[in-house]
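ok trying this again, last paste got cut off
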Amino acid sequence: MKIMQHVPGFVSGYNAKKAEASTWGELASVDWIDNYKIHDGKVFYRFSICNDEKRYSLMAEFDNGDYWWVVGDLDQDIPELPRWVYNEGKEIK
């Protein structure tokens, strides 16, 4: 599986990082992905997958899923991860 780091459109001068691994465990141990577990005093909850017709996205959820970040775009699903679901009223980041 391959992942390309999500870089918001308003960010310039930064090249997205890429990683490739055979398993979710290997991918989760990549330093820049693992670093998403630490965020401004928020409590890391879990990684999850958001998918639509076009892509799979790896999400990092905090504070029981009330706060989240898009980590990157995947070339395939990771079935062992829970599905990310947007809940009205949660903070979008």
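PB: full thing came through this time. Residues 1-8+17-93 form one domain.
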